[in-house]
Amino acid sequence: MASNRTSSAPRKAVAKSSSSLTDRAYRSLEEMIVTLKLEPGSILSETALAEKLGIGRTPIREALQRLAREGLITILPRKGILVTEINPAKQLQLLEVRRALERLLARGAALRSSDEERKAFLEIAEGMETAARNSDDLIFLRHDDAFNKLVSRAARNEYARRAMELLHSLSRRFWYMHYKESADLPLCARLHAEQARHIALGDADRAADASDKLIDYVENFTRATVAPR
Hints:
The protein has 9 helices and 3 strands.
């Protein structure tokens, strides 16, 4: 029995290392796509990405499959990997789904957050207020990502969390492309702060209403990107 446990340990270590590399590849590629360093419509190569990131092709391939499930890329057999275009009409469809999911997650987080998570929500609210006062896009984007992940985790609903993971990156990329021309960043940051505080206080109804107010703003922002100028 002891020998079996010993022999399985290296396999577990290898599996953990492979998963870690895949996560690292995913985070790097997702950020490059969301921040438009890999532009919509561009064609990517597994080999080139592996060389650029210094990660083997297997973790790169696994990360790309995840990005394809999220709609950020399309894998074209024998041709390469296409970074998907940004479509405002599809973004509005996405928001219909986000509205229902965000409201569900906000209520769940308000009801089920741990004390540590409630403290983290208050810290995010303070960070968002700082972003609002200074119109600081980098602070906003950092806290927005942290807020999304914390709400999904704190709601304790695995199915809603998985569904939201498919939408967050697409939403963040759309925001990054258009926020300088169409967004009221201070207002958006304050709406995030309001929702975070209601969740921290355990007020499920107000957290859900704050979620609706935030999606109302995001929908108006999205429509403004296609309005004639």
